[in-house]
Amino acid sequence: MTYFSYFKAECLVLFRRKQNLVNALLFFTLVIVLFPLGVDPSKAFLAPAAGGIIWCAAALSTVISLESMFKEDYADGSLEQLLVSGLSISWLVLLKVLVHWLGMIIPLLLLTPIFSEMLFLPDGVLGVLMTTLLLGTPGLFLIGSIGASLTVSLRQGALLMLLLILPFYFPIIIFSTSAIQAVASGLPYSGLLAIISAISLLALVMSPLMTPICLRASVR
Amino acid sequence: MNWSWFHKLGSPKWFFQWSKKWAAPIFWLGVLGIIVGMIWGLAFAPKDYLQGNVFRIIYLHVPSAILAESCYLSLGIAGFVFLVWQMKMAPVFIKAMAPIGAVMAAIALFSGSIWGKPTWGTWWVWDARLTSVLVLFMLYMGIIAIQNTLDDRVLADKAAAVICVVGVINLPIIKYSVVWWNTLHQPATFSFTKKPDMPEVMWMPLLICVVSFYLFIAGLVVWRMQTEILRREHRASWLKKEVVSDGI
């Protein structure tokens, strides 16, 4: 096995198991629909809240989609094989996160203009919203992979993973929604984008260090 | 009344042989009807005095919206039939129909929002009709998801049938949403009790479109059911004989 063959196999698994991804996207849609139906469908409420609603939905659906990230590998024993394969497990984890991120971010970016229209996002904000998603979701996925590796041996890991991981998502969500609010009120926002990128880069450093530790602890 | 046709429907073998004869004619009749209705509606029907040419999207929007609801009703009936009589063909029908219904609901939503932009000035409002059709789309996606996620087929069939029956509750909400709530969406175009408000040259092509959408989807679903029977009964000896002797 090489890194490239692993990458190819992961892409294939993601494609064959596309229902998992579709479920996460449906969950994303349902969370978004909850806000206009549950709170207020008027433009006065939705227009300023739209960016935050989309970000919250993206964070929740990321956790849902990552929960099963290592589960099947753990169940069928291929996780052990990866650990003893002699390849660097950190790189393998990064490749896996990359595949899952690509699988999620492409449909997410395609859906975002539709939902921002449905939530009456103000004109000119969409570009920044997409940029924050593009810069922030790698952080979500990298942090999420730590949570997924922690709960890999649990039968009902989703709830525990939500409890563990969502607090770490708060900074990304806060800076993203402040960037969206800043651009809506005409303030400079490039500093906020830089902070989001910095958090994602920090996660890029931390996640490949922490995830293998949790995986090794789970596989005994 | 003779109920043998009903019992025959429960037999995959009988259905497979029957569908070989009927799927293609129904499907192509539907395609022909759609072509005729669309060309008539898009090119020859008169312009609306208020909306101009924009109204022509009705020839796509109304048939797909009607079909989205009808498909779900048929899923509900099939789910009920499966839960009560354990008929073998009912889950096959649900499996074949759910994606078609989802596509119809998606077309209805998309064409509606394209129509909404020039007439209401917005792509989307959280109006009762639009929201309930969105919920219908999510129900279809839920049925597809549960069939794809559960590996145990017996359990998947039963779970899908249960959602189909429970989801029927959404249909009267969609139907009467324009009556119960004061919404932006206009009331129903067709009804059984009175003549449409439009002139005949405008509703005739629409009626043709609706009827041929029904035929088109009936043909399509029968074809998809054939495929599903092939998948489920691939061990049966009658199927092998059938396929080997005179193809699919």
TrEMBL record, chain A:
Please provide the record's keywords in A-Z order.
Cell inner membrane, Cell membrane, Cytochrome c-type biogenesis, Membrane, Transmembrane, Transmembrane helix, Transport
GO CC terms on record? plasma membrane
Q: Which InterPro entries match?
A: Cyt_c_biogenesis_CcmB, Cyt_c_CcmB_bac
Q: Which GO terms describe its molecular function?
A: heme transmembrane transporter activity
Domain of life per record: Bacteria
Q: Where in the cell is it found?
A: Cell inner membrane
What are the TM regions of this chain, as residue ranges?
A: 21-39, 45-70, 82-106, 126-146, 158-180, 192-215
Q: What is its main location?
A: membrane
Give the record's GO biological process terms: cytochrome c biosynthetic process; cytochrome complex assembly
**Lipid bilayer topology:** Multi-pass membrane protein
Could you say which protein family the record assigns here?
Belongs to the CcmB/CycW/HelB family.
Functionally, this protein is described as follows:
Required for the export of heme to the periplasm for the biogenesis of c-type cytochromes.
Q: What is this protein called?
A: Heme exporter protein B
UniProtKB/TrEMBL annotation, chain B:
Q: Does the keyword Methyltransferase apply?
A: no
The record's subcellular locations are:
Cell inner membrane; Membrane
Question: Which lineage is the organism of this entry classified under, starting from the top rank?
Answer: Bacteria, Pseudomonadati, Pseudomonadota, Gammaproteobacteria, Oceanospirillales
Q: Which family does it belong to?
A: Belongs to the CcmC/CycZ/HelC family.
**Molecular functions per Gene Ontology:** heme binding; heme transmembrane transporter activity
Query: What species is this protein from?
Result: Marinomonas spartinae
Task: Give the GO terms filed under biological process for this record.
Answer: cytochrome complex assembly
PANTHER family (alphabetical): CYTOCHROME B_B6 PROTEIN-RELATED, HEME EXPORTER PROTEIN C
- What is the membrane topology noted in the UniProt record heading this document? Multi-pass membrane protein
Provide a GO CC annotation, any one: plasma membrane
The record's annotation in InterPro entries points to:
Cyt_c_assembly (IPR002541), Cyt_c_biogenesis_CcmC (IPR003557), Cyt_c_biogenesis_CcsA/CcmC (IPR045062)
Record function comment: Required for the export of heme to the periplasm for the biogenesis of c-type cytochromes.
Domain Cytochrome c assembly protein: from-to ranges: 27-185
Keywords attached to this entry: Cell inner membrane, Cell membrane, Cytochrome c-type biogenesis, Membrane, Transmembrane, Transmembrane helix, Transport
- Which spans are transmembrane here? 22-45, 65-85, 92-116, 128-147, 159-181, 201-223
State what protein this is by name. Answer: Heme exporter protein C
Entry keyword annotation includes Cell inner membrane: yes
